[in-house]
């Protein structure tokens, strides 16, 4: 049935008619299901225009085929914009400088096979019932319902008030209270209040070592791509090495979701949380953890399992984090992987073995700083084109950490071991961010298993059972623990020495607010929110 039949220019080339399109019906039925289940949003205007365009037919058969191809492409673009996935610019930024094989792997992960199978099932059902059900009529009715919900006063009022929930932040005077409903203005005001408060926070190390100081080494192991969620995703959270540490934080925020800013925050752990732009704008010696320890006589030795060249990683950390630029010679280490950019990554076990041997020969106070990237996305075994999956690499890392723990124990040197990942690998995606992307620094990516072990404590100060530190913590708490271990002479044999439990009590807490180059993320009155820089705050759909 033709709707228009005039001889004007429009109808000369086009005709408008109601005729069933199985693809159109299947597409919108599938989107309605995803929308109702909360997996996507739904732009009424864009989808209504697309729906009407399916009525258009071009009279020339060859052009009509191209028009159908255009409709399919347009429908996929609108589906992507309705999803909660990041923009293409964010995906391309993560691909910059990576190998061709890595790009193919990530493209493969972008395609959700379950969604494709789901659409195929809907299409098959629509094909079977197309003679019994008018698909366009059904789609039109659902469109009306969704449009009414989107623009009705009841729905708008509900959207504004549904976030009026109790404050679920840990009870600590260190953390500003969250006041009011979750409006853009209130969340933005809270972020500014938090950042202003953080400017005044500082861990002040003693000017000299305590009298009769019992020397001990400090080893900081900074591991790329190992969040608590990643460990749980591959079912390695029960690995034996986790039970061997004296302290373990249950809610430690790496803040950043990328390597350079995350490690820089660790190196500048003495100060409260800065914005990424402020952190990159200048060096601050009072913030430098390594500088504070060097003034007490500690000599820093740097061990990487990579060359530190990619992204000017080592250079930037030297300029803004006061990290010494001399690495332990990589030529003496065994190659384990090839990185996503083609450079070699060396065996972490051989890195640990090298540190233990170097520490045995050291005569003064040693501060070891390690950065390990064997868990980074895209790493391949030598000679292989496809990246090795995360699970086997994590198991090998945990086994190597166990080797380090046992090796330090056998060495007999008094040592404070700190294991603190940079950020997670995003092994599990969610509704708004596919697996392996880290542009929005969610808690799945920034909640990291931070652990501390003391080797060589006397009976008075040793800890028979592991202590779990509950609360909301970040780098300020870590610098405070290291300061207390030095200040309280924790390895001393005296009876007045503080215990492990005492130095881990009443640590400075920080609100759980994360930041990447392009986004902020936080929990406000019981809901997760994010904003791309320059935009307003929106709820994060987990």
Structure, explained:
By secondary structure, this protein is an alpha/beta fold. It has 2 domains: 9-161, no CATH class; 195-539, Alkaline Phosphatase, subunit A, CATH 3.40.720.10. The chain is built from 20 helices and 17 strands. The protein has helices at 9-13, 22-36, 44-53, 61-82, 88-95, 100-110, 113-129, 135-151, 153-161, 184-198, 228-233, 259-267, 276-281, 289-294, 313-321, 348-361, 390-411, 443-446, 475-487, 500-503; strands at 14-16, 56-58, 217-223, 247-249, 252-253, 299-304, 335-338, 344-346, 366-372, 415-421, 447-448, 451-455, 467-469, 513-515, 519-524, 527-532, 538-539. The strands form 5 sheets. It has a 7-stranded mixed sheet with strand order 6-9-3-10-12-4-13. The protein has a 4-stranded antiparallel sheet with strand order 14-15-16-17, covered by helices on one side. Strand 14 (513-515) and strand 15 (519-524) form a beta hairpin. Helix 12 (259-267) runs parallel beside helix 15 (313-321). The radius of gyration is 28 Å and the shape is elongated.
Give the secondary structure arrangement, pairings included.
Blueprint: H1 9-13, E1 14-16, H2 22-36, H3 44-53, E2 56-58, H4 61-82, H5 88-95, H6 100-110, H7 113-129, H8 135-151, H9 153-161, H10 184-198, E3 217-223, H11 228-233, E4 247-249, E5 252-253, H12 259-267, H13 276-281, H14 289-294, E6 299-304, H15 313-321, E7 335-338, E8 344-346, H16 348-361, E9 366-372, H17 390-411, E10 415-421, H18 443-446, E11 447-448, E12 451-455, E13 467-469, H19 475-487, H20 500-503, E14 513-515, E15 519-524, E16 527-532, E17 538-539
Parallel strand pairs: 3-9, 3-10, 4-13, 6-9
Antiparallel strand pairs: 1-2, 4-12, 5-11, 7-8, 10-12, 14-15, 15-16, 16-17
Helix pairs in contact: 2-7, 2-8, 3-4, 12-15, 16-17
